[in-house]
Structures are given as C-alpha cells and as structure tokens.
Automatic annotation (TrEMBL):
Protein name as annotated: GSL2 protein
Highest taxon, organism lineage: Eukaryota
Pfam families given in the database record: Glucan_synthase
Domain Glycosyl transferase residue range list: 5-493
InterPro entries in the cross-refs: Glyco_trans_48_dom
GO molecular function, one term: 1,3-beta-D-glucan synthase activity
Residue ranges of the TM segments: 315-332, 338-354, 422-446, 466-491, 503-525, 537-559, 607-626, 662-684
Listed GO biological process terms: (1->3)-beta-D-glucan biosynthetic process; fungal-type cell wall polysaccharide biosynthetic process
Keyword Transmembrane helix: yes
C-alpha cells in the first residue's frame, strides 16, 4: 500500500466519478425515497469520500482509465455467482494497486431507480447479501490491515460499517426489549421505593423493603429519546443536499412529503432487510444475484406473495417482539414504549402499506381467498406458490440441497444450496436462541415466584412450561403417525376416486394442530388464574422452547433436502413406491416425519400471524375513500388522475363479487372465532359464574398458580397509590 502523500504525487487517476440526478424522484414516495438515497450517496457522500481518499466504484456513472484498470486486476472480480457486487472490486483493485479515484462536479448523469416496494427490497437484499461475501474477501483484509487510520475509518463507515450498523440497530432493539421485559417483571412483582433525585442515595428507603426501580424506568425513557434523536439524524444528509442545491423551501417540502407519507416506516423495514440479508449470508451462505424486476410500480402484489417473501426476514421477528412488547405494556406501561409499538408495526405492515390498491375492498377479500388457497395447496400436486414450498425454501437454507438432478419443473426453480457447517448452525442458530430463552425464562420464573406473598402454596412453573411446550408437539407427532398409517393403507386407492385426498388428509392434520394449540393456550391461561399478560409470556416461552427443539432437529437429524417435492406428496398420499426416489424410499419417510412435526407447528404460526396482519388492516378498509387516499400517498396522484381499475367482463365481475362476498363472511367468521378465543373463558367465568378451579385434578395442582388477591403495594400502580396517599396526608397536615 502507498501512503496518501505518495498517492497524491505519483499515483495515476484510475476512476473519475460524476454527479447523479435521479429523474424518478417525482413518481411517488418510494421513487422519491430511493432517489434521495441514491442522490445523497452518489453525490454528497461521494464527493466527501473522494476528498479524504475513501471513494471506490459502486456501479454508478464513473469513467474508468481502461489501460490502468485492465492491466491491474480488471474491472470486476471472478466469482462463482455472477452479477453479485462484482463492480465494487474495481475500486478496491484500483486503490490496492496505487490508483486514485476522483469526483468531478462539472458533469452530471441522469439515472432512474426502482419505484416499486418489491424491486427496492430485492435490490437491498442483494446488496446486503453481497456485503456478506465482500467481508470474507481478501480485498477487505488488505484494505482493513494496510490503510492509514483516516482512510480506514472512511472505508469502514462507507462500506461494511453501514451494514453492520443496521445489524446492531436490530440487535439493540431485541436487547432493549429483553431488558424491558425483565424490568417489567421486576417492577410488577416488587414494591417500588419513593424516588427523589435530590435526596442522597444513602437515606433510608421508603416504604420498608422496597426496590429502587424508578431510576431504571427513567433510564428507559431517556434511552428511547436518544434512539429517536439518532433516528431523526438519518434525514440530515438529504436535508443538507436539498438545502445546498435547491434552497430552504425545496428541502422543507421534500422532507415534509416524506414524513406525511410515512417514509420512516419504510426506512425501519429497509434496515431490517439489510440486517437479515447480511446475517443470513454469514450464517448459511448462498448469496446470489436477485433480479429486481423493475416492473410497473402500480401493480398490486397479492398478500400471500408478500407474506412468503418477508415472513422469515421481518414478520417472525416482529411477531415475537410484539409478544414481548405486549407483556411489557401490560406489566409496565410507559409512554416510551409507544416508539417500539410503532417500530414493530412498521416491520409488520410496511409491505402492505406500500402495496398499490391494498385497501381496495374487493381485492382485499380476494386476497384472503388466495391466502387460504396458498396455505392448503401443494399437497396433491406441485404448485409454483404454496405454503409448503415456502417452508421448504426456508428449511433448505439449513439443510442444503441434494446434488442429484431430475428434470422436474419445480426443481429447476430451486437454486443449489450448500449445507452450512455444524459449527455455523450451532453458533448462529442454537446458541443465540438458548441465550434468548434463558433471559425470557428468568422473567417468567420471577413472575411465578409469588414474591412478597406469605403462606402461599408452592407451584412448579417449570413443569407447566415443559408440558405446554412439548405437549402439542407430542400430540402432533402421534396424529401424524396415525395419518401416515391411514395414507399408506388406503391413500393410493382412494386417490384414484378422490384426487384431492392428500390435501384432505393435510387439512385434517393442520386443523387439528390449530385446535390443539388453541386449547394449549387456554389451559396455560387457566393455570395463570386468567392473567392475560402471564399467558402471553408463557406462550412466548413455549414458542422459544419449540423453536430450539426444531433447530436441534434440523441441525442433527435432517439430511439434505430434495429440490423436488415428491416426498411431501408421498407422505400425504401414501404413494411411496411410485414416487421415483429409488432406494431413498426406505429412509425418506422417517426424515419426512421429522419435517412434518416441525411443519405442523409452523403452520399454526403462519396461520395466526397472517390472520393477525389481515385483522389489523381491516379497520383501515372502513375509512371512506381510503383507496384514493392511499394512492395519493403512494403516487401523489390527485383524485381525478387515479389509476383506473382493470376492465372486466360482466361474467367475471359477477364471479369476483360472489367470491368477495363469500370470503368476507369467512373473514368475519375467523375474526369472531379469534375474538372468542380470548373472550369465551372470561364470559364463562364472569357472566355465567362458573368456577373452573373446582374441576382441577389433584395430580395437576402443582402447575396452577394459587388464587390469591393481587397486592396493592406492588408495581407502578402501587407506587402511584402510595405517592398519592402520601401527598394527600401531607395536605391534611
């Protein structure tokens, strides 16, 4: 490596970068956000990096010194996967071989960016996964070990540091929720001390035996405020760019439109996609080029495609975080938690918020129809998009794919996956889950410890959690064995008369699994004396235990995955002999049995998570003209210039209307049943006055919490009551 002084004196210019103008900035909020990012990075950030010697080549409109580049490493890097961040290595090779990269302001290149939500997120996924490959390259090692400190810090923040920052943001959110969860359990079960920051800490605490927890709650509020402040600073580069080039009014109007169109929710989701893409590549590998599509940004994407695309990257994380956040809000409500509610809702609803015509009445319920079909398809015949295909695509990252190829169409759509190493799976999947479980279980056990309660009956919460977490898995395993015998004995014969018999068997298994999990939740709620927050926390721990169990099974017991789906169809139909898997027909049923045990629980998870996302969107449908307001937000179109709906024949319109009406009724029925899961036990207890504790068997009494009167001294409610009584007493004096 050459020093900066020598580089300025003798190093030839290898690359000259130019300014960029993104002309797609006026086509809706997503186009403007993408243009703003490209504009600040390609112009403002590039000119700064060029000044301090940290600019590289990023595929932007740059002029390359052909003689220098082709004789010193080339303009890209040979790699197994084509078109994956190969252009970034041109700048690295130029810098490593003594070349200079400059930026000029007197030339400008026009450029268009992605306009649709899916194409933008595909691009971000590709960049995030490519960064994982770059961090393993020798060029990063050379630059990281030989650059001077000033250029190294510039290189770090502009390249790997940006993506690692996204990882740390999501990691800090999870850590913060874990701390808040334990703090909520501690405050809820403790007597909180009177707090006055002007009183010395050595003074005796009041009331006697209390815990000084108010400073921790104040810390929680300050931390959220600091996070919000740092997040607000992310809008600063675009503001500076607009302010210096177009003036105060243009900067104010552009940022105002971003805020009014809820672009912060989009930025939160983009941060999660960047983070998860990098983590997945470092854990499993398999980074590859993703065609962003760049289709029409006005096309509506069905719900099930959005769910399958972003569930593993965002929805599962947001669902688990919402469970922790709900417990924290019920046990320790503070206005600071509102920030996390908004963040988690952004991770859940951002793909649908930026989906054109998402809140069109007819399309919404036709989407629900496609979602139910997506959940149940793929068991009788191969389907391009199905829930089982989505699960297999997630599982194949951890198991790898078999190298033996056939000519099936579904196999051609599946990429080759190398099986991750055992150490990688343990360190990236199992150990973090165990640490997460240990922190959450500490809060749960403390909540069940009956703190400050005298002469109470001893309970065994560990036994209860073990029963409620492993019980549904055992029941599903026994059910699958019974259905396997049925499908093998009568499946091949009945399938001749009823081609959809495998789908029927799968529907029975999945329905029973849903009922089993609902009953498990009700029993867990019952053991906690109908304390809803404890039921939420207990069910969350059950899902953590099951997740750890399933990851251990995937890591230790599952062999490589077939690219085709013959084993899944053979399981439900019983046609193992004619499945075309050769001698693997002997061993494949046992492997598929373990897969089906995992899939039964994952189906329940996706069923309730998908319905929850649909339920929280339903109130928006009731707003008058919401579809027009939504299009105005996305594309900045006036009401008279709205996108016209497609022209359909009268027959097709009648069919769509009939399907919409039917699935509207189904949707309301599912919503009613979901509400009854939470309301029915309370109605039986409070309205009908039925004491269910009389029916508890003696053998199960240890897992039930004693029916004690809640203490008025514990928690924030007890603290506020104590402070108000003290204030009233001082007034009387």
């Amino acid at each position: 490596m050459v020093s900066s002084e020598e580089q300025q004196e003798a190093s030839p210019v290898a690359i000259v970068g130019t300014r960029e103008y993104i002309f797609s900035e006026n086509i809706g909020i997503l186009g403007d956000v993408a243009a703003g990012k490209e504009q600040t990075f390609g112009t403002l950030f590039a000119r700064t990096l060029a000044r301090i010697g940290g600019k590289l080549h990023y595929g932007h409109p740059d002029f390359l010194n052909t003689i220098f580049m082709t004789t010193r490493g080339g303009v890209s890097k040979a790699q197994k996967g084509l078109h994956l961040n190969e252009d970034i290595y041109a700048g690295m090779n130029a810098v490593l071989r003594g070349g200079r990269i400059k930026h000029c302001e007197y030339m400008q290149c026009g450029k268009g960016r992605d306009l649709g939500f899916g194409s933008i997120l595909n691009f971000n996924t590709k960049i995030g996964a490519g960064m994982g490959e770059q961090m393993l390259s020798r060029e990063y090692y050379y630059l990281g070990t030989q650059l001077p400190l000033d250029r190294f810090l510039s290189f770090y923040y502009a390249h790997p540091g940006f993506h690692l920052n996204n990882v740390f943001i999501i990691f800090s959110l999870q850590l913060f929720l874990l701390v808040a969860l334990n703090l909520a359990s501690l405050v809820h079960e403790s007597v909180v001390c009177e707090y006055n920051r002007h009183v010395p800490i050595t003074d005796p605490r009041k009331p006697t035996g209390c815990s000084n927890l108010i400073p921790m709650i104040k810390w929680l509020e300050r931390s959220v405020f600091s996070i919000f402040t740092v997040f607000s600073l992310s809008f600063l580069p675009l503001c500076v760019q607009e302010l210096t080039e177009r003036g105060i009014w243009r900067a104010f109007t552009r940022l105002s439109k971003h805020l009014m169109c809820l672009s912060p929710m989009f930025e939160v989701f983009v941060c999660k996609i960047y983070s998860q893409s990098l983590i997945n590549d470092m854990s499993f590998g398999g980074a590859r080029y993703i065609a962003t599509g760049r289709g029409f940004a006005t096309v509506r994407v069905p719900f099930h495609l959005l769910f399958s695309r972003f569930s593993s990257e965002s929805f599962y994380f947001a669902g688990s975080a919402l469970a922790m956040l709900l417990f924290c809000s019920l046990a320790l409500w503070d206005i600071a938690l509102l920030y996390f509610w908004l963040t988690m809702f952004a991770l859940l609803v951002a793909p649908f918020l930026y989906n054109p015509n998402q809140f069109a009445w007819t399309e919404f319920f036709l989407d629900y129809k496609r979602y139910l079909q997506w959940l149940s398809s793929g068991n009788s015949s191969s389907q391009a998009n199905s829930w089982i295909g989505h699960i297999r695509a997630m599982r194949i990252q951890g198991t790898g794919s078999k190298r033996r190829a056939t000519m099936e169409v579904i196999e051609k759509r599946t990429s080759d996956f190398k099986k991750p190493s055992f150490v990688n799976m343990i360190s990236s999947q199992i150990i973090p889950s165990l640490l997460h479980f240990s922190v959450v279980s500490t809060a749960y056990l403390f909540m069940n410890a009956q703190n400050e309660v005298k002469n109470s009956r001893q309970t065994n919460p560990i036994l209860g959690i073990a029963l409620f977490s492993l019980g549904p898995v055992v029941i599903n395993a026994l059910l699958l064995l019974a259905l396997f015998v049925v499908s093998v004995l009568i499946g091949p014969i009945i399938s001749l008369c009823i081609p959809k018999f495998p789908s029927l068997i799968a529907a029975v298994a999945h329905t029973v699994s849903i009922v089993v999990y609902v009953i498990t939740f009700e029993l867990l709620w019952f053991t906690q004396n109908w304390d809803f927050k404890m039921a939420i926390l207990g069910m969350y721990i059950c899902t953590l235990i099951q997740g750890i169990l399933f990851k251990i099974i995937t890591t230790t017991l599952l062999t490589r995955e077939f690219k085709h789906d013959r084993s899944n169809k053979a399981w439900w139909s019983g046609k193992w002999i004619g499945s075309g898997m050769g001698w693997r027909t002997v061993t494949q049923p046992l492997r598929e049995y373990f897969c089906k045990i995992i899939e039964m629980s994952m189906f329940v998870n996706d069923f309730f998570l998908g319905h929850f996302i649909l339920f929280i969107q339903f109130p928006v449908l009731l707003i008058p003209y919401v579809d027009k307001w939504h299009s105005l937000m996305l594309f900045w179109l006036r009401p008279e210039r709205q996108i016209r709906p497609q022209v359909l024949s009268p027959k097709k319109r009648r069919r769509r209307r009939a399907a919409m009406q039917f699935y509207f009724v189904v949707f309301l029925l599912m919503f009613t049943l979901t509400v009854m899961i939470f309301a029915l036990p309370l109605i039986i207890r409070d309205f009908f006055g039925v004491d269910l504790h009389r029916y508890i068997p003696e053998i199960a009494i240890d897992i039930f919490q004693p029916d004690s009167i809640p203490s008025t001294k514990k928690g924030l409610a007890g603290y506020k009551l104590y402070m108000s009584s003290k204030k009233n007493g001082s007034r009387k004096l």
